[in-house]
Structures are given as structure tokens and as C-alpha cells.
Amino acid sequence: MRRGRAVCHLGLSTAWLLLALSSPARATSDVLVVDLSQETVAITTGFAGTDVLLFGAMEGKGDVVVIVRGPDRPVVVRRKSRVLGVWVNTAKMTFERAPSFYAIASSRPLAEIAQETVLAREQMGLDHLRLDLPRAKASENVAAEWRAGLIRNHQRLGLYRSEIRPITIQFDRLFRAELTLPANVSTGKYQVQVYLFRDGRVVSARIRGLEVERIGAEAVIYDFAYQKSALYGLIAILVALMAGWVAHLAFRKA
Questions:
Q1: What is the pLDDT of residues 79-132, one digit of tens each?
Q2: pTM value?
Q3: Do 140 and 246 lie in a common domain?
Q4: The dihedral of CA 90, 96, 102, 108: what is its sign?
Q5: For residue 154, which of 218, 72, 89, 213 has the smallest C-alpha distance?
Q6: Within this chain, do residues 228 and 118 fall inside the same structural domain, yes or no?
Q7: pLDDT, position 82
Q8: Both 190 and 226 in a single domain?
Q9: Neighbours of 150 (CB within 10 A)
Q10: Same-domain status, 58 and 157
Q11: CA–CA gap between residue 190 and residue 227 (Å, rounded)
């Protein structure tokens, strides 16, 4: 039943996109219309990640690039060193602002769409993602090492995607892409940035919001764990002791 409603919604949205493009008031060479299959991603118990469908339409030929950015947050990166045969944290650096999630989709390889200067300006690709550190804390070379460490850590968690997802364009007008969010995605307001390129330059851009939030029992447990961490820890210990005691009784009877 849900699948039927989703297909119906997608069909109506596609019809709306075509109607918008055919309207005389919007018949310009850089029209870009974008929509998402859902504007809210609900994290519940057992959440294993999800795909969000982005679809849209453009007037005339062009290339489309989509960037999905999670909310910016402070990130601490730690460096481990071997001391007396044991790996320990010996240094750390704090990035005041870094996206909690970053993924990109494109209709063609980025190098074929625009020059490096344009890609750097729009922060397209992990190589161009701006993760600045104050110069008082790190020189340019040192900052580059810490930056590489932050990206590497987020890639290991699946939160920074190095691969570029494909964008399908049909009839030089309609396009679509599947945006994948992993199970460990952070909550907050995400930005879906859509760019239309022609001849190596951006001729139109749109931003759509995507809300990721916890609901139900997952939200209650999460809020309780962070707002009353000491009590949550105590309850967790008591539950573990109770489970061990029950298991002990079960084995004794066996």
C-alpha cells in the first residue's frame, strides 16, 4: 500500500515539474526545479539507513551536481603514537566546524564538468571540502595532516562518501538520483544542494532541506542517555547485573 502511494506521489511530482517547465513565466534557459521523495527521515529502533530519492527537471541540456551536507559540528581529531609499546593518544586538534555528513552525486565526472577553481569554490568533492583550522594552532602543512585525518575518520564511519553517486538524466530535461543515508547518520537539518552546470559554470542552483530526527522509543532513550547520563549509566549497570543473575539462576536449575 505504501509503495502504491509513493509511486502516485512521484508521478504527480513529475507532472508538476513538467508543468512548471512548460509555464511561460518560467521558460528561461536556466530553470531548475527540484524535489525530494521525503523531507523527513525518521530514526526509529532498528533503523538501518535509508535512501532518499531526489528528482527534478531543467530547461535545456546541462550537467547536474548534488551535494548532501549534514549539520556542521565541532570535531576533535586525536593522533595516536606508540609509547613504551602501547598506542596512546598523544595529540589532538579541534575543528570548530565540520559537516557531520558529506556525499555527492553527479551526472558526469566532476573533472569533465568544471575546472578545479570552480569545484573548489563550490566545495565539490572531498578534496575541496573546507575544513579550516586557526593559523595560530597549526601551520598550513600541519593543518593538512589533521584535515586528512578528519576525512579519513569520517570515511571509516561511512559519513564522508568518496564515491560519487550517479545522476540519471532523461530527455535532456528530467533527472533523478538516490541519496543514501547510513544507519549511524546524525540528526539535524541537512542541506541538499543542487547545481546546474553549462559550459563549466553554474547557471542555476537550488537548496532543499532534509530533516533527520529520532522518534518513538529511540528518541526517548537517546535524550535520557544524554540529558541524564549518570542515571542512565547506573540503570544500565543494574540491568546488566539483573540479566547476569537471571542467567545464573537459569543455569543452576538446568
A1: 877 777 777 767 788 898 999 999 999 999 999 999 999 999 999 999 999 988
A2: 0.74
A3: no
A4: negative
A5: 72
A6: no
A7: 72
A8: no
A9: 19
A10: yes
A11: 24
> Per the structure block, which three cell numbers stand in for 9?
506521489
Sequence-ordered alpha helix ranges (H) in 126-228:
140-156, 216-227
Q: How many structural domains does the chain have?
A: 2
**% of the chain surpassing 70 pLDDT:** 73
Residue 185 belongs to what domain range? 2-212
* Residue 7 in this model has a pLDDT that exceeds 80: no
C-alpha 102, offset from chain centre? 4
Residue 251 and residue 140 share a domain: no
Q: Do 136 and 221 share a structural domain?
A: no
Q: How far is CA 201 from the centre of its chain?
A: 25
State the pLDDT at residue 154: 95
| 146 and 232 in a common domain | no
Measured distance CA(130)–CA(76) in Å, rounded: 16
Phi, psi (degrees; rounded to nearest 5) at 124: -100, 110
CB atoms within 10 A of CB 97: 12
Task: State how far the Cα of 77 lies from the Cα of 92, in Å rounded to an integer.
Answer: 5
Which residue in the block uniquely carries the three cell numbers 546541462? 62
User: How far is Cα 126 from Cα 112, in angstroms, rounded to an integer?
Assistant: 17
